[in-house]
Amino acid sequence: MAKYLLLKHYRGAPAAVNDVPMDKWTPEEVTAHVKYMDDFAARLEDTGEFVDGQALSPEGTFVRYDGEGRPPVTDGPFAETKDLIAGWMVIDVDSYERALELAAELSAAPGAGGEPIHEWLELRPFLTAHPTITE
């Protein structure tokens, strides 16, 4: 089994086919989308392929250690995940092909008008071993 991260982006990926921002959806459209996501995760729980997933709040802050005392905090000017990543799901599957299949299915979650979004999802494998440096 191999673990993959599926990232849902706010922007930065190519535009979805049904490219209407979620804040323009009706409450019923948002409910249908969340239900699709929940049903998808429940089905993967049944097959043992679901590890975890979360939608992310748009709030966020950069923090860094800067010695003793209060750490510096900023809201930019970096490209921030709160502007880029809407949520994520971790899956544990038998093959890369299965990961592609599930990512494509998740991309079809309904959006505005109840039509599938056909959004681009970023599929990233977990690093299974630390890189070896040889010189």
Topology record:
Blueprint: E1 2-9, H1 27-47, E2 50-55, E3 62-63, E4 73-74, H2 81-84, E5 85-93, H3 96-107, E6 121-125
Antiparallel strand pairs: 1-5, 1-6, 2-5, 3-4
Account of the 3D structure:
The protein has 135 residues and is of the alpha+beta class. 27% of the residues lie in helices and 24% in strands. The protein has a 4-stranded antiparallel beta sheet. The model has no long low-confidence stretch (mean pLDDT 84).
Basic shape: globular
What is the helical fraction, as a range of percent?
25-40%
Mean pLDDT: 84
Percent strand: 15-25%
Which structural class do the helices and strands define?
alpha+beta
Q: How do the strands line up in the largest sheet?
A: 2-5-1-6
Order of helices and strands: EHEEEHEHE
Contiguous low-pLDDT stretches (5 residues minimum) are: none
The radius of gyration is 18 Å
Secondary structure tally: strands = 6
Question: What does the largest sheet look like?
Answer: 4 strands, antiparallel
The total of helices stands at: 3
Measure the end-to-end span: 32 Å
InterPro entries: Dimeric_a/b-barrel (IPR011008), YCII (IPR005545)
Pfam families: YCII
Protein name: YciI family protein
Organism: Nonomuraea ferruginea
